[in-house]
Amino acid sequence: MDQFNEDGPGGIALDKNFTFDYPFFTPGAGEMPVSEPENRALLDFLYKTPNVYAVFTFGPYNNLSEAPKFDKAKTSKRIITGLLEKDATVGEQVAKLYTGQANLKDAPAMPATKGNFAQTAYYHYGRFSFSTPGWWVPKLTAAKDTAKKTESTLPKPAGPGSTTASPGQNDDVKFLKWADANGVPGTFVAWAAVEHPDFPGRKAEVGGVVPFARLNPPVRFLTQAAEQHTRFLTTFAAQMPSIEIANVRTESLGNGVNRITAQVVNRGLLPTGSEMGDKVRFVPKLRIELVLGENQAVVSGRKRILRGPLAAGETAEVTFLVTGSGRVTLEAGNAMIGIQRTPLTLN
Q1: Average pLDDT value over all residues in the chain
Q2: Which residues contact 207 (CB under 8 A, 6 or more apart)?
Q3: Alpha-carbon distance 95 to 101, whole Å?
């Protein structure tokens, strides 16, 4: 009783409506996981697109400025809630790349929320998943007199019993100081009394920090943010896995039998897939296959080899005994990283 807007403001928060760690019976999370058509459309796209290597999200969760640490207790449970060990190592590598290339410092703590997209992309889609807000309010380096001027325009605590944080500790105050020092208008609306039709005869006020002003960069900061993240994403793409079929040899053993040996090498600086991808059993395996023609057969070894990810610089050696003559093709890769092909001639 005596509640107002008890269903919560703003309807459904789409980033609470995904499948991993869905917050049941939480305002804004929706009736059930992926109840919203926008979320369903996004997940349908992902699950129909096997060539996605990694997912990047711009949103209110940051695992790029500081990568989450490996926690064995979270990975040994039936439902895994923490990065697997190899994936945590990759996360640290990518976080260093991000802070170096994007050159963004002093990131605020932005832990993962329940039911968000970035974690669903990792735990349920099995891909590396990285998230950043893309921009945040830098630390203020303005002169003290500017800071004092800003503080003087803000509402003061109500009195000795007030729980309002002091200006030096309040994030809204820090944001308004920065906005004042950088000439960013429209970030704060002075509190004013209004006649509210739902509260006749009672005092009502509106005002304060403009919604989302702390999260959305002013237009003049967008170009710099875009350039920083373009530089990071370009460098990330250059470090992606690159499969090479090397040291291929074909030897005739007589009686129409040939031995084929080769090495499949990951020349990239990142693994060919996440460790979590093997757990969810949906991510395509690394496939090494000898594609035969007519009147050819593999008499020793497997024609098609499926295996987990190759780490950066790791090598997989393969051997086939093949009967017949003519051309065969050795293939290695998968949809996420591309497929390399090397034609061979049997003696």
Answers
A1: 89
A2: 188, 189, 190, 191, 192
A3: 10
Beta bridge partners of 321: 259, 300
Beta strands in the chain (DSSP E): 54-58, 128-132, 188-194, 204-209, 243-254, 257-266, 286-291, 297-300, 304-307, 315-323, 326-334, 338-346
The 10s digit of each residue's pLDDT in 281-324 is: 889 999 999 999 888 999 998 999 999 999 999 999 999 999 99
Q: What is the rounded distance in angstroms from the CA atom of residue 251 to the CA atom of residue 21?
A: 54
- Each residue's pLDDT tens digit, 62-83: 999 999 999 999 999 999 999 9
Which band of pLDDT confidence, cut at 50, 70 and 90, is reported for residue 156? very low
Residues 117/153, Cβ–Cβ less than 8 Å: no
Burial class for 287, CB neighbours closer than 10 Å (0-12, 13-18, 19+): middle
pLDDT at 9: 62
Which structure tokens are listed for 163?
């729980």
Beta bridge partners of 193: 205
Question: Could you tell me the two tokens for 194?
Answer: 């209004």
Distances (CA, A) of 145 to 141, 168, 335, 344: 12, 14, 59, 76
Beta carbons of 130 and 54 less than 8 angstroms apart: yes
Side chain identity at residue 48, one-letter code: K
Domain segments of the chain as ranges: 14-135+220-238, 144-216, 243-346
Nearest in space to 123 (alpha carbons), one of 257, 274, 236: 274
Domain 243-346 fold is Immunoglobulin-like (2.60.40)
State the Cα–Cα distance between residues 187 and 139, nearest whole angstrom.
17
The DSSP code for 14 is G
d(CA 60, CA 215): 8
Q: How confident is the model over 192-227, as pLDDT tens digits?
A: 999 888 888 898 999 999 988 888 889 999 999 999
Closest CA to 90 of 274, 338, 249, 217: 274
